[in-house]
Design a protein that fits this description.
CATH topology of the largest domain: Rossmann fold
Oligomer: single chain
Number of domains: 3
Strand order of the largest sheet: 2-1-3-4
CATH superfamily of the largest domain: NadA-like
Helix content: 40-55%
Bound molecules: 1,3-dihydroxyacetonephosphate, iron/sulfur cluster
CATH architecture of the largest domain: 3-Layer(aba) Sandwich
Number of strands: 12
Length: about 325
């Protein structure tokens, strides 16, 4: 931030607003010049969602990446999202504002466990949440996102399912698809796992009429007290369609931008401490502008690995169609 010597905090705010407006114009210009498209997840900061061409949940963004005819895809999310875009578009340049933006859960599968499970169960499908590394995808039979996991697991011919890496989404799917034997893996999102029942009840005590809307990455104790469970896009749709005017939102706080933009008359509360994925917040206007100028933060996936990881991703897009 640039400080102005008027000694007045209002001057700083005005100056900062002007700088952001200038950056937004420069980004717009570079996007046109380079035929670039900006994809942003609902957890990205507000200012990033404001300039994105496509904003959505993981499933929507995977489809948007696949259908894009831009030369450059600039992905404002975390590494598994940029990687998935590259896997689906090998001929395109995929950039990320900060290549260190990562999803902790994407790595939470013990070395060798997939082979162990395949040896143990003859009829096993390895179902891989898209929040995973390309390496894990390459060893899996099908990918899923939080918005299509139930549909895809139901559609599989296999009885035995090893669900990686998220035990919470896996347990949610297991409840919805009791006819399958779903084996859970010991991984979870550290941000959603920190939401505790007491934090949600504290909000409910303040706002007794509010409905509780929850992402399935939360622990079961949160799912059990919720009025609705769904992906970020599902939560946003539910809030818009609902007659209720107040909601307690159990997911990362970036969704607040779309929720409040779509529903200025409704109230949205978050558990305290407010869930925040620091990696998602590495997507800033400054980083977007500099990566569009320099084209230096390029997402690369080894070609052999890419071909293997493409199979479960394409299978997901096909089954979920
Ligand atoms: P969505 O499938 O709702 O985009 O969730 C992605 C994610 O990272 C949740 O933490
Ligand atoms: Fe990964 Fe959790 Fe961040 Fe989503 S909120 S990107 S699951 S760490």
């Amino acid at each position: 931030m640039t400080y102005v010597k008027c000694g007045d905090i209002i001057c700083q705010v005005i100056k900062e607003k002007e700088e952001k407006a200038t950056m937004k114009k420069q980004i717009e210009q570079l996007k046109k010049e380079k035929n670039a498209v900006i994809l942003a997840h609902y957890y990205a900061p507000d200012e990033v969602q404001q300039i994105a061409d496509y904003i959505g949940d993981s499933f929507y963004l995977a489809k948007a990446a696949k259908n894009s005819d831009a030369d450059i895809i600039l992905f404002c999310g975390v590494s598994f999202m940029g990687e998935s875009a590259k896997i689906l578009n090998p001929e395109k340049k995929v950039l990320m504002p900060d290549l260190t933006a990562d999803c902790a859960m994407a790595h939470m599968v013990k070395q060798g466990i997939i082979d162990e499970m395949r040896a143990k169960y003859e009829d096993l499908a390895v179902v891989c949440y898209i929040n995973s590394t390309a390496e894990l995808k390459s060893k899996s039979d099908v990918c899923v996102t939080s918005s299509n996991a139930v549909k895809i697991v139901k559609a599989l011919p296999n009885k035995n399912i090893f669900f990686i890496p998220d035990k919470n989404l896996g347990a949610f799917v297991a409840e919805q698809v009791p006819e399958k034997n779903i084996i859970l893996n010991d991984g979870c999102c550290p941000i959603h796992a920190k939401i505790e029942k007491e934090h949600v009840f504290a909000e409910k005590a303040k706002h007794p009429k509010a409905q509780i809307l929850t992402h399935p990455e939360c622990e079961k104790e949160i799912l059990d007290i919720s009025d609705y469970i769904g992906s970020t896009a599902d939560i946003i749709k539910y809030a818009k369609d609902s007659d209720c005017g107040e909601f307690i939102i159990c997911t990362e706080d970036g969704v607040n931008f779309k929720l409040t933009t779509d529903n200025p008359e409704k109230k949205f509360y978050f558990p305290n401490p407010r869930p925040c994925c620091k990696d998602m917040k590495l997507n800033t206007l400054e980083n977007i502008l500099s990566v569009l100028e320099k084209e230096d933060r390029v997402v690369e996936v080894d070609e052999e690995l890419r071909k293997k990881a493409l199979i479960p991703l394409e299978r997901m897009l096909e089954i979920a169609k």
